[in-house]
């Protein structure tokens, strides 16, 4: 069991770190980071819905990865990185303090979820809380798909 937990955590963390090492382009880096967050949330949602067996260690590793990603978000939106193929709206840079605060809130909630996770019911509440962070930020700062 312990080896499985360590292996799962290693895979989740390594996948996230490898993604960010791909490029010096902040647009590509943040797109990879957001894709990694989506993968983590997808795994958590599967467990929360009972589609995948609940595994506290795997869920904690996913929340840890989301927290680590959230910590990096503000730095991946430097001035001038709103060019090219990006879904980020100009409001990211116009309201940067709010944007950065939302990333900090995501990090805080993901860390709290990781620390307090004990069962599937707790996972469901944590996934909802973290998902609201993501959705709220996307609502204000991400271009809508047409």
Ordered list of secondary-structure elements with their pairings:
Elements: H1 2-20, H2 26-48, H3 56-72, H4 91-94, H5 96-116, H6 120-141
- Tell me the fraction of residues in β-strands, as a range: under 5%
- Which secondary-structure class do the elements indicate? mainly alpha
- Count the DSSP helices: 6
H/E series: HHHHHH
Can you offer a commentary on this structure?
The chain has 146 residues and is an all-alpha fold. The chain contains six helices and no strands. It has helices at 2-20, 26-48, 56-72, 91-94, 96-116, 120-141. α2 (26-48) runs antiparallel to α3 and α2 (26-48) runs antiparallel to α6 (120-141).
What does this entry show, briefly?
This protein is mostly helical. The chain is 73% helix and 0% strand.
Structure characteristics:
elongated; mainly alpha; 6 helices; single chain; 146 residues; 73% helix
